[in-house]
Structure to design on (590 residues):
């Protein structure tokens, strides 16, 4: 680093010019691999701009990579309240400073300088409170993050234990600060206690007290988390062992699983039971709802056979060609109708009827018999018989 | 308050339908229905217990969950041992995926799939989990559906497919805990 910024204005201006690059670098601060080429792209490919930042100690060059200088990194983290390091030493330093300034105040005789020391004391007090509150907040956030996001349980546990130590240190400093305010410097707080100082002191006390309460809560949470991790870990180890035994087919032999499972009859282990419950016939008979359902079912049943029916093959053309056969037959119905309209007895009528074709005697006799049997209901059978040639026949009239 | 417990027990049918199918009811369930059932049981545990006892189901309670068990033996021991071993396999897989896999844990199927593809141990376990499923996504979805069916996990976010592990998961952990390994083999098991 060859140069330093000469004024705040120059610093802010320089930072503003490279805000894109700095923003990107800050968001990638965890990955530790910000390539030089990438940075070039963010500064419109002007190497001198990157060189300028390096010269002024904002970033540093580590071969192919660029890193933000710690002092700026720390500054951004602090201001943006994203720092992960909880630095207890600051408070310790402020305490020392506070004691020193009080000491100077008490020894100083010049009013103006005395006043300056008093102001310094107030600043220290405020800083102690502010840093403590900030530390507590950081601690809480880090604790939750560690528990939720750290996948490796050993690291997780170690980190939480470390956070617990931090918590202890913060608590210690709070107690020290309170002690200092209450007991160690009675002369100073008696002499220098103006209205402003009283406000500052009471504010600081309040903030410290709040922080302390928060710490108690955090302690409980850390213990809870550690217990949970232990519990999960125990289960994990146990499962690993059981799995190992099971893979070696030693599980039943070397554990009490047989006995344990024989005592337990949880329902989840049973095969899925399905309860077959019969329909209530009464309900089916009486309820409208059931009636609707039955209708629906009946409909579905009807539809089921549609489409799935077997279809015969198409009739071959040949069969459809005209192969009309003419068969000459006598329409008995017609004969019967004519007979019913006549006044003669059936035998006479049948023998003498004018058929459309030639009909011999034997056929006429067949028709006589057919008519007599087919239309028996409409005929009146008499007991009188007559003969004609070799044929004996009854006299049958229309009713 | 009415004297007849049946008038207080509002959800006997709903609760029966879940528990009699081998399901669990968890206190940290996302479904408001389930939570209501849980609270109902918690409030009238002895009434519900007596009620279901009458039909042969024993309402058992654990750390944030309820389930049914029986007194009479319905399943032969071999089948029970098989089921227990199956869950040891599942648990071993899930705990290898994340040691904190337990009640309250949130995960997505994709998280497990990614982990399988970059963790040799998990990959090996995944391949042995189901005899008929070998593809990673199939293994994971079958495992999740088994967990879901039992009421051990619930989908918390439909959009990104986040699942939440329910308190009923304690049941499996308790089961594992209650198995004791013989002293003499403790040392023979590699860490």
């Amino acid at each position: 680093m060859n140069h330093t910024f000469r004024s705040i204005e120059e610093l802010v201006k320089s930072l503003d010019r490279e805000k894109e690059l700095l923003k990107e670098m800050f968001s990638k601060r965890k990955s530790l691999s910000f390539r030089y080429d990438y940075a070039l792209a963010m500064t419109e490919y002007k190497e001198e701009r990157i060189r300028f930042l390096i010269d002024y100690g904002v970033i540093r060059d580590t071969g192919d990579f660029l890193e933000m200088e710690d002092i700026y990194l720390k500054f951004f983290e602090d201001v943006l309240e994203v720092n992960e390091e909880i630095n207890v030493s600051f408070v310790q330093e402020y305490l020392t400073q506070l004691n020193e300034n009080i000491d100077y105040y008490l020894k100083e005789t010049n009013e103006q300088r005395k006043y300056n020391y008093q102001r310094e004391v107030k600043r220290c007090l405020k800083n102690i409170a502010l840093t403590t509150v900030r530390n507590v907040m950081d601690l809480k956030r880090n604790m939750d993050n560690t528990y939720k996001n750290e996948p490796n349980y050993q690291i997780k546990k170690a980190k939480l234990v470390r956070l617990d130590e931090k918590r202890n240190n913060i608590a210690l400093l709070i107690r020290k600060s309170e002690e200092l305010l209450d007991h160690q410097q009675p002369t100073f707080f008696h002499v220098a206690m103006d209205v402003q100082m009283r406000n500052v002191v009471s504010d600081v006390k309040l903030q410290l007290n709040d922080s302390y309460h928060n710490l108690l809560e955090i302690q409980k949470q850390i213990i809870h988390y550690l217990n949970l991790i232990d519990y999960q870990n125990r289960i994990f180890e146990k499962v690993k062992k059981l799995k190992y035994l099971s893979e070696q087919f030693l599980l039943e032999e070397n554990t009490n699983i047989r006995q344990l499972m024989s005592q337990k009859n949880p329902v989840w282990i049973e095969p899925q039971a399905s309860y077959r419950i019969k329909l209530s016939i009464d309900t089916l008979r009486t309820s409208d709802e059931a009636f609707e359902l039955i209708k629906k079912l009946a409909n579905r049943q009807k539809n089921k056979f549609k489409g799935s029916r077997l279809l015969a093959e198409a009739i071959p053309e040949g069969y459809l060609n005209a192969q009309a056969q003419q068969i000459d037959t006598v329409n008995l119905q017609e004969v019967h109708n004519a007979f019913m309209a006549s006044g003669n007895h059936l035998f006479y009528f049948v023998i003498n009827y004018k058929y459309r074709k030639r009909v011999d005697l034997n056929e006429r006799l067949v028709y006589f018999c057919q008519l007599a049997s087919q239309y028996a209901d409409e005929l009146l059978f008499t007991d009188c018989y007559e003969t004609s040639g070799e044929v004996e026949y009854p006299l049958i009239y229309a009713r | 308050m009415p004297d007849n417990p049946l008038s207080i027990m509002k959800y006997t049918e709903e609760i029966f339908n879940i528990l009699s199918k081998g399901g669990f009811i968890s206190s940290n369930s996302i479904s408001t229905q389930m939570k209501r059932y849980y609270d109902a049981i918690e409030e009238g545990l002895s009434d519900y217990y007596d009620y279901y006892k009458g039909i042969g189901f024993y309402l058992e309670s654990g750390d944030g969950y309820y389930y049914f068990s029986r007194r009479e033996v319905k399943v032969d021991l071999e089948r029970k041992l098989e089921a227990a071993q199956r869950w040891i396999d599942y648990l071993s897989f899930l705990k290898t995926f994340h040691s904190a896999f337990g009640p309250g844990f949130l995960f997505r199927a994709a998280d497990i799939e990614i982990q399988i593809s970059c963790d040799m141990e998990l990959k090996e376990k995944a391949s042995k989990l189901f005899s008929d499923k070998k593809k990673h996504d199939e293994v994971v979805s079958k495992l999740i559906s088994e967990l879901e069916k039992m009421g051990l996990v619930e989908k918390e976010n439909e959009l990104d497919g986040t699942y939440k592990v329910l308190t009923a998961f304690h049941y499996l952990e308790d089961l594992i805990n209650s198995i004791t390994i013989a002293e003499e083999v403790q040392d023979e098991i590699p860490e």
About this structure: The longest helix of chain B spans residues 77-97.
